[in-house]
Each structure stands twice: as structure tokens, then as C-alpha cells.
Specification:
Helix content is 76%, strand content 0%. With 197 residues, it is mainly alpha-helical. The longest helix is centred in the C-terminal third of the chain and has 30 residues. It is globular.
Length: 197
């Protein structure tokens, strides 16, 4: 029995070390870093949250709604939005092929993102804050953003088989994006409520 327990502890320790090593490899991957940088750039574009919430209400993006996605996400043109989406999906395809991101849980993807944002030196500060705050409200905001982003990335990975150059792919990824930004708005609202207390 003692050997069995020691064997299990050794296996868990080895698995954890391998998992951490894989994270370090992914975090240092330029493709992963470029993905995160463009993700942050898109997050910082001005959004039409009211319309995003309306589009997200039924969980499906219609053809008509897909034609307006670029506007509500803050892009200047639909071509700019599609080019960004195509780049990001291409990066995810490569990362999925190399690291099998689809096998990660939301929790592990969130841990990976947390390390990734630290690696590229992008603090996830609440809007209106100039520095990284360590108070509980800012920590909750950061945790919320990382979990929402992790969920969205796994949603985009699930959409990979749907080609972004055809309507099905645009609708699939568009639904993920609409849900992501509606949830990120909730992170912001929760932060504002927390600070107001």
C-alpha cells in the first residue's frame, strides 16, 4: 500500500511538472504571445455593449447581425474585422496543433492566460485605472477577465473546423465574440459595484 501511495505521489508530481513545463513552452511561444497581444488590442477597441448584449441574447448570430459585428466591436471596416479574425483563428489552429489547447479545462486555460499576460507584460487593469491595483476589487476583475477569456478561447478552438472565410465560421466565431464581450462587460459592472461599496 505504501508503494502504491508513493507511486501515485510520484506520478502526480511528474504530471504537474510536465504540465508546468508545457505552460512555460506555450507562454514563450511567439504565436501565443502575438495572439494575446491582438486579443488585448481588440479588447481595448470601443464597443457597443448594448448591441452586443442584444446579439448575444439568443446565443446565435444571424446573417444580418454578422454584417454589423465589425461596427459593434470597434473596427473601422468589416475587412479589418475579418482580417483580425482570420489571423487569430490561424494562430489558434497552429497552437491547437502544437499544444492541443482543446484538452485544457477552463481553469487550466485561465492559468495559462494569467502566465501569458504576465509574460508579455500586459496588466489586466480595470478600465479607468492606470496601474495594476492589488485591492480585492481589481483582483476580482482580473480573475473575471482571465476566466471569460479562457472560456472564449476554448469556444474559438471549438469553432476552428468552421472556416472563417465562409458564413458558418463567421457566425460561430461571432457568437463566441458576442458572448465574450457581454461577459467582459459583466466583469466591468461587477468591478464598479465592488469599488462603490
Amino acid at each position: 500500500m505504501k508503494k502504491l501511495i508513493l507511486s501515485l505521489i510520484a506520478l502526480i508530481t511528474l504530471s504537474t511538472a510536465t504540465f508546468a513545463q508545457d505552460f512555460n513552452t506555450i507562454v514563450k511561444d511567439k504565436i501565443f504571445q502575438d495572439y494575446l497581444k491582438e486579443l488585448v488590442a481588440e479588447k481595448n477597441l470601443p464597443k457597443d455593449i448594448t448591441t452586443i448584449r442584444a446579439y448575444n441574447a439568443d446565443g446565435v448570430i444571424s446573417n444580418a447581425e454578422s454584417e454589423n459585428m465589425y461596427k459593434i466591436l470597434g473596427y473601422k471596416t468589416n475587412d479589418e474585422y475579418i482580417a483580425s479574425l482570420t489571423r487569430q483563428v490561424g494562430r489558434l489552429k497552429t497552437l491547437e496543433g502544437k499544444y492541443r489547447l482543446s484538452t485544457l479545462s477552463v481553469t487550466n486555460m485561465a492559468l495559462l492566460l494569467d502566465q501569458g499576460f504576465t509574460e508579455i507584460r500586459v496588466p489586466l487593469t480595470p478600465p479607468g485605472e492606470n496601474t495594476t491595483s492589488v485591492d480585492n476589487c481589481a483582483r476580482r476583475y482580473n480573475n473575471c477577465v482571465v476566466i471569460v477569456t479562457a472560456t472564449a478561447i476554448l469556444g474559438h478552438v471549438a469553432c476552428i473546423p468552421a472556416d472563417v472565410t465562409i458564413l458558418g465560421g463567421i457566425l460561430c466565431h461571432g457568437a463566441v465574440v458576442a458572448a465574450q464581450y457581454a461577459m467582459l462587460d459583466n466583469c466591468q459592472l461587477d468591478y464598479q459595484d465592488c469599488v462603490a461599496k
